[in-house]
Amino acid sequence: MTLVRRRRHQEALKLSLPRLAQFRHQTRLPAPTLLNNPDSPGIENLEKLSVLGHGTGGTVYKVRHCRTHKIYALKTLRWDQSMTAFLHEAEILKRVSSEFILRCHSVCDTGSNPDSDQCFVMEYMEGGSLHDLLRARARLPEYMISDLASRVLQGLHYLHSMQIIHRDIKPSNLLINGNGDVKIADFGVSRGWPGVKDPYQDSCAGTCAYMSPERFDPERWGGDNANGFAGDVWALGVVVLECYMGRFPLIGLGQKPDWATLMCAICFGETPKVPETASRELRDFAGRCLEKDWRRRATVVELLSHPFVSRGSDGGGGNTNVEMSSTVLPT
Ligand SMILES: Nc1ncnc2c1ncn2[C@@H]1O[C@H](COP(=O)(O)OP(=O)(O)OP(=O)(O)O)[C@@H](O)[C@H]1O
């Protein structure tokens, strides 16, 4: 999938692991910058175990605390011009604390030389991302989709109540822990609360495949007046359909997901069709999220009481988790 990212676009990814010794000198940020928990792990105590994945801006490692043996995910971002964006993300992470949001334990940089990395010490999510899960399983059953939609909605409700707009909801930013619980991650392009400088004031920040019509083409879809929250709802609708159909749902099979194709599909195409095989609840839920006019789109609060997600929380929740974790966990 072609991604349009305004942040962290640099040279090819470095695959080599930074040496632990590098972690000992922290100059740019007084290190580690502790977040919610005073017992947060300092980076000098972390031992790298393996690479969990690569993103546009850096690498994520599985690490172990030397003393407590607790496992964390260390997300490193290469040093570039985006210090403002990094600090912006750190500022958001410092303030959020919810069971529906990936926990960040500390923020630091890994060395004193100008090319060194900045990093986040994050909660380790054994199940990897929803993107990994979809690659392994292609389609998900409705009760799992309902469970994950419910959790993402609760996370969005929490964020929106703090005036934070995520702006990059997509499968690779939804992580799954050992209990099968989905959490929202990656605030790299999020918009914070009023008064906090937004390094991505334009509407282009994020991943264009999951971008709502009013963000993609503000002129046509009244994006200049949009409050932004509706864009997160649209992205959730795309994710729900993707989980059900087992492929990116907004373009046809075999179509290349380049910018022009996505633009046509999202801004000019028909409202995405939900397969007839889906339950009435899922079809209605996705349709309410994928309403092109953001003023008519359902809000997070409305969706929280939608039958598609409210049925997910009764009875089957425990099973959902067991199946999710047992099917997904790669290691
Ligand atoms: N806390 C975590 N626990 C376990 N695995 C993780 C964690 N964070 C990230 N990963 C793994 O590392 C991969 C890369 O994550 P990262 O956030 O750097 O990039 P991305 O979101 O996939 O892509 P991009 O940031 O370019 O949009 C993820 O897809 C996931 O498989």
UniProtKB/TrEMBL annotation:
Q: Which UniProt keywords apply?
A: ATP-binding, Kinase, Nucleotide-binding, Serine/threonine-protein kinase, Transferase
**An example Gene Ontology CC term for this record:** cytoplasm
- UniProt-listed SUPFAM superfamilies: Protein kinase-like (PK-like)
Is Kinase among this UniProt entry's keywords? Answer: yes
Q: Coiled-coil intervals in this record?
A: none
Q: Which PROSITE patterns is this protein grouped with? A: PROTEIN_KINASE_ATP (PS00107), PROTEIN_KINASE_DOM (PS50011), PROTEIN_KINASE_ST (PS00108)
Q: Name one GO molecular function term.
A: protein serine/threonine kinase activity
What InterPro entries would the database entry show? Kinase-like_dom_sf (IPR011009), Prot_kinase_dom (IPR000719), Protein_kinase_ATP_BS (IPR017441), Ser/Thr_kinase_AS (IPR008271), Ser_Thr_kinase (IPR053235)
Entry's SMART domains? S_TKc (SM00220)
Q: Name one Pfam family in it.
A: Pkinase
Ranges of compositional bias, category Polar residues = 320-331
**Locate the Protein kinase domain: which residues?**
46-309
Q: Does the keyword Hydrolase apply?
A: no
Q: Where is this region: Disordered?
A: 312-331
Q: Which residues bind ATP?
A: K75
Q: Which family does it belong to?
A: Belongs to the protein kinase superfamily.
- This one is known as Protein kinase domain-containing protein
Native organism: Punica granatum
Taxonomy of origin reads: Eukaryota, Viridiplantae, Streptophyta, Embryophyta, Tracheophyta
